[in-house]
Amino acid sequence: MTGILTTAGTKVPLSRSGRLPPVQVLTVIDSLGVGGAEALLPTLAAHLDTDRFRMHVLALDTVPPNQITSALRELTDGLIRWQPRGLLDARRYRELAAVIERLDIDVVHTHLLYGNVHGALGAWLARRPVVATLHNGVPTYRRGARLKRHLELIALRRSNARVIAVAEEVRQAYLGRGGLRSERITVIPNAIDLRRFGHVSEVDVVAARLAVMGSSRGPMILAVGRVAEQKGHEHLVAAMPGIVSRFPGAMLIIAGRLDAPQQVEEQIREHRLHERVRLLGSRTDVAALLAAADVFVMPSLWEGLPLALIEAMAIGVPTVATTVGGIPELMVSGETGLLVPPADAEALCRAMLTLLDAPDYAAQLGARARVVAEGRSAVPWASQIMREYDLALTEKASQFTERLPVR
């Protein structure tokens, strides 16, 4: 190693060829459970230019091993479990700053509420630049919502974070009334690895359908997403009696971790749908389930830009979704799917029946949706993320007299 350049108060060694070593990125996120924001991390890690960037991951929760943690162990330079002690515990921010310094991190990339607060404040104390991703237009929490949102905004403003919103609707939710400055927020819509959804073998499709439908030959309606208030599954269950009356063999399959299934289970009991609704929990065969479905439904009450919807569109399954978050930015009702208001079981029922009663029309919507989803490839998406890293580093370097060249 020869020579040094100074940036952000740290010394960076140059190789004999004069090339800079890879930028060390620490990703801080609430959890590594199976979910949309979490699923983006392996996709990003797989598409980073590893000659220029190396990724470490710090999770603010401990979860059992799953496909996300397994992928991250293979694709990143480190996976750290970190137990937070609350948003008002200043010691945690100092401790996280020490971790950032010990790992010689160059950029901190934060996700979700607790990740944004802990990661941004820890990075600020360590004098490292921050890139923060906003995944939802409204808070995904209820207790102390106003205080938590206020703390998140303070952390992002204090750290002067470069902010990524996954949809324009999300960006708008964080502007004004003491929110973030418009020039600090860039919209970069979520993307998927199209290699996973470009082709699913017929054998896998048949096996997946048989496993979840059993002997039932009726239409298979699929929802993918964690079972929690945000996802609105109880309204989808409430719509099922109207489907079953027209299609007695119909089944609703919900694949996603069971965070808070009480309301959904209550609707199943109330409508006596024990034989018509199945809660699968987390699955690793989502692509096959999507390909096996007759209709995909995204009944969310609030969203950013759900990966499961992009995945369903990439498969080409006819889709019904609600008009929340960035969904209308992705899907045009009557052209690439059908959109309905949130929390409206009757509207969900009518839209599903429209697709089930007109399979040719449904297939046309699915084919057009596939074309749209092909434009949401992870390759250009990862390039945009890396550009945000470059910009964050350049902004930080501009505060010092000796600066690194723009990468």
What does this structure look like?
There is one protein chain. The model is unreliable at 1-12 and 400-407 (pLDDT under 50). The protein is of the alpha/beta class. Helix 4 (113-125) runs parallel beside helix 5 and helix 8 (233-246) crosses helix 13. The chain is elongated, with a radius of gyration of 22 Å. 42% of the residues lie in helices and 17% in strands. Strands 5-4-3-6-7-8-9 form a 7-stranded parallel sheet, sandwiched between helices. The longest helix is centred in the last third of the chain and has 20 residues, at 378-397. The chain contains 15 helices and 15 strands.
Keywords:
15 helices; single chain; disordered N terminus; 42% helix; alpha/beta; seven-stranded parallel sheet; disordered C terminus; 15 strands; 407 residues
